[in-house]
Design a protein that fits this description.
Layout (H helix, E strand, L loop, with lengths): L1 E7 L3 E8 L4 E9 L6 E7 L5 E6 L3 H12 L13 E8 L10 E2 L2 H9 L8 H14 L5 E5 L9 H4 L5 H7 L8 H14 L9 E6 L3 E7 L2 E5 L21 H8 L4 H10 L2 H6 L5 H9 L3 H24 L5 E5 H6 L1 H10 L9 H6 L6 E2 L9 E3 L4 H12 L1
Parallel strand pairs: 1-6, 6-8, 9-12, 12-14
Antiparallel strand pairs: 1-2, 2-3, 3-4, 4-5, 7-8, 9-10, 10-11, 13-14
Helix pairs in contact: 1-3, 6-15, 10-11, 11-13
The structure holds adenosine-5'-diphosphate (ADP).
The site of adenosine-5'-diphosphate has 12 residues, from α10 and α12.
């Protein structure tokens, strides 16, 4: 069975074609600058022969038609005909409380995606544009929505409710939703298999540490708490986002003469690792600056690790038991010094790093980075959101 996975942004379309018999990737690619006169398609068949093609003016519909034309192209194509595609899986960021699983796309699903435009103004409209373009190009092929929020829809009310006036929730939908759910779901399933635990019994703390970062407490295979909030600004410190903050800081900065827009921009794009270090939002640059003795870089790294450790401690407290802490995302999968610093911060919970295993587990490798008698097992499990989307799609079609 062949599955086409689409992640559509406002100006980009990322895609992969999977052969689900062995979950291999047949082709992948990206259209950039969608909506402009200079759209560019980069298409990469698994066997080699990467191609970059200017598309001229391309909206989502034209870009999608051009991508599909590549897939069946005699030279760089990987399919004889589009009819080989058994289903199209679309990443959709926000379905709020409406879906706790992926769903076959029909008018009701489209209505829910539209209903969540106000809660996800950057992503949901773009995701829907991709869905519409895909339906227009392949009207007879089943389409599936895989929601980022779905895995987090199992949070108990105690965890998702904010202590604000009840009508803020009832009238304005103010609550914790959470994000990165597809990644947390994927590593939860992978970790359950690695730990030889039934998928509905595994207890984990999954840490997705990329440019954005979020942490999920998983009990019995289901998410029970999560660090991001109504928006992805909450939780741990990130590349450019502040994470948890005293909300009154915003009113104070308004009084200091900053506009709401400036504050929003600063907290989303100029805070976090970048804001504290003044160096970069990228962990590799931060570590290089630490190595050359930059004090602000050291402070940023220490704050970054400290805030993750506090979440792990808090989630350990609310979980009935814990099989493992799972690290994933670009930093979780690769950054040996950051993981070592995190394990040192968790010494109070009996965490003992295995230095050799830590150094060896990078570049897409899976493995445990704590010693056998560490009181808490810490695993590195590379994420694969596209494969999770492909698996859910295959299951539903
Ligand atoms: P995104 O959230 O944009 O998908 P990623 O999951 O790719 O981001 O993570 C990006 C982060 O991972 C960056 O901070 C980057 O520095 C870090 N990273 C990637 N590779 C390495 C590496 N080899 N060593 C340290 N950090 C790395």
């Amino acid at each position: 069975m062949k599955i086409f996975v689409v992640n559509c942004g406002s100006s980009s379309i990322k895609y992969k074609v999977y052969d689900m018999t062995d979950e291999s990737v047949l082709a992948s690619g990206l259209v950039e600058r969608v909506g402009s006169d200079e759209a560019v398609l980069t298409h990469e068949p698994a066997g080699g022969g990467r191609q970059t093609v200017p598309l001229g003016h391309a909206d989502h519909n034209k870009a999608m038609r051009d991508v599909l034309a590549r897939l069946t192209d005699p030279d760089v194509g990987v399919l004889d005909s589009l009819e080989e595609i058994a289903g199209v899986g679309h990443r959709v960021v926000h379905a709020g409380e409406r879906y706790s699983e992926s769903a076959r796309i029909d008018q009701a699903v489209i209505d829910v995606i539209e209903d969540h435009f106000p809660l996800s103004p950057l992503h949901n409209p773009a995701n829907l544009a991709g869905i519409r373009a895909s339906i227009a190009a392949m009207p007879d092929t089943p389409q599936v929505a895989v929601f980022d929020t779905a895995f987090l829809a199992t949070l108990p009310r105690t965890a998702w409710m904010y202590p604000v006036p009840m009508e803020w929730y009832e009238k304005h939908r103010v609550r914790r939703y959470g994000f990165h759910g597809t990644s947390h779901k994927y590593v939860t399933r992978q970790a359950a298999a690695l730990l030889d635990r039934p998928a509905d019994e595994v207890n984990l703390i999954t840490c997705h540490l990329g440019n954005g970062a979020s942490i999920t407490a998983v009990a019995g295979g289901h998410a029970v708490d999560h660090s991001m909030g109504m928006t992805p600004l909450a939780g741990v410190m990130m590349g450019t986002r502040c994470g948890d903050l005293d909300p009154a800081i915003i009113f104070y900065m308004l009084q200091e003469g900053f506009s709401a827009e400036q504050i929003d921009n600063a907290l989303n794009k100029k805070a976090g690792i970048l804001g504290v270090s003044g160096v970069s939002n990228d962990m590799r640059d931060l570590l290089a600056a630490c190595d050359s003795g930059n004090e602000r870089a050291h402070l940023a790294l220490d704050m970054y690790v400290y805030r993750i450790a506090k979440y792990i401690g808090a989630y350990r407290a609310i979980l009935p038991a814990l099989d493992a802490v799972v690290l994933t995302g670009g930093i979780g999968e690769n950054s040996v010094p950051t993981r070592a610093a995190l394990c040192a911060r968790l010494a109070g919970l009996g965490v003992i790093l295995d230095g050799q295993a830590n150094a060896a587990t990078t570049g897409g490798k899976t493995g445990r980075i704590t010693v056998d008698d560490s009181a808490m097992a810490i695993w590195v499990v590379p994420t694969n959101e596209e494969l999770m989307i492909a698996r859910d799609t295959a299951e539903l079609v």
